[in-house]
Amino acid sequence: MFGNEVARSPGRLLGLICGFVIVASLFAGGAAAHEVRPSIATLSLPGNGTFELKMATNIEAMLAEIGPEHEDTDDAPTAVLYQQLRALPAAELEKRFRTFTPGWLENLGLEFDGKAASMSIASIAIPETGDLDLARDSSVVLSGKVPEGAETLIWAYPAEYGASVLRVERPGEPVQGQYFIAGARSEAIALAKAEPRSTWQVFYDYVVIGFTHILPKGLDHILFVLGIFLLSPRWKPLLTQVTAFTIAHSVTLALGLYGIVNIAPSIVEPLIALSIVYVALENTFTRKLHAWRPVIVFAFGLLHGLGFAGVLREIGLEQGQFALGLVAFNVGVELGQLAVIALAFLAVGLFLQRSWYRNRIVIPASFAIAAMGAYWVVERTLA
After folding, report:
1. From residue 263, how far is each of 58, 62, 299, 309, 346 by CA, in Å?
2. What's the distance, CA 284 to chain centroid?
3. How far apart are CA 144 and CA 36, in angstroms?
4. Do 36 and 381 meet the contact criterion of CB atoms below 8 Å apart?
């Protein structure tokens, strides 16, 4: 019966073929992709003429010369080398990294009064091999002397190592944190005392962080937004759902950062994936936006907000500008979501009124999104 129906409907057949192609490509990417998060650099300045720089980073990514975007791990031969490095025992990986460090230290990008800092490795801590689908976060501690009379420092992490976060610790002062896109160079930072950055600087930084967390790094959030878009691309229902999602993730993001709500990622991440499955499958069973859909989207937005909180906890919002950074991050997330919707309109806007739009685009794309979400549910549950 199904075969006869497909034979009588070339549009449905085309849709199914497109769906299988999308599923295959998504699974091919999902199986090999490993998100390369920003390197977190914590610079301690105890005030005795020395400094310590602790780098929390993905050593395998540096050795494989993977850039800031996780899609780079899908490309051969980069993917092959990266996975080989992921499988190495900690001792072997450390051995390879030590042969790499002379060039790395030379280009690390820490300067005092415009001159490159001289530093050496104090310690390297690499976790033993575990789940190869999860990034292995290693810690490299560097130490050196602050040149006598130096007044400022500059951070310029090389572009080939991706985005970075610099956190500066001084005795008796709040930690000063700043996010840098790949290849960005900081302004001069005072050594003696933290100089508060302007409201505009902080706002801009966290808007960028929020936006890049959606595009290009947040594939799960992208698919969720596309799932919302596919059911009803008209602006009013779309705005209703996006607003519900925005309010929800803003609430739990704030609660998570203030420590009021703290749920383990091992619980949150599979549930986020499950939310993608639900929204996508609902698109295949209904043609219109029911009253419960914004409520469901709101509930799932609460989960996504907890996921966002994990990102900001890793970076560290500046004390004294916590609320501003929180608002700016949410603005960045919304801009990212609107960009996804705009791109979706550009891709299919001409076909919205066609009789075959639902059968050829909505249903195949929704099945593909649901399949990817289901894959993540299993992967994140077993991780």
Report:
1. 25, 31, 15, 10, 37
2. 29
3. 28
4. no
Residue type present at position 383: A
Residue 272 corresponds to which tokens in the numbers above?
A: 């986020």
**Cα distances (angstroms) measured from residue 127 to each of 6, 118, 255, 311:** 52, 27, 31, 21
Of 124, 150, 139, 120, nearest in space to 45 by CA? 150
Question: Exposed, middle or buried: residue 288 (CB in 10 Å: 0-12, 13-18, 19+)?
Answer: exposed
Check: CB of residue 194 under 8 Å from CB of residue 80.
no
Buried/exposed 317-328: b ≥16 CB within 10 Å, e otherwise? bbeebeebbbbb
pLDDT single digits (tens) 11-54: 443 444 344 334 434 443 443 333 446 788 999 999 889 999 99
239-243, 254-258, 335-339: least confidently modelled range:
254-258
Residue 355's CB is within 10 A of a number of other CB atoms, namely 8
**Band of residue 110 on the pLDDT scale cut at 50, 70, 90:** very high
Distance CA(68)–CA(162), nearest Å, equals 4
In terms of residues, how long is the chain?
383
- Residue range 131-168, pLDDT digits in tens: 666 677 899 999 999 999 999 999 998 888 878 888 88
Cβ(242)–Cβ(344) under 8 Å?
no
Q: What percent of the chain has pLDDT over 70?
A: 81
Adjacent-strand bridge partners of 53: 43, 142
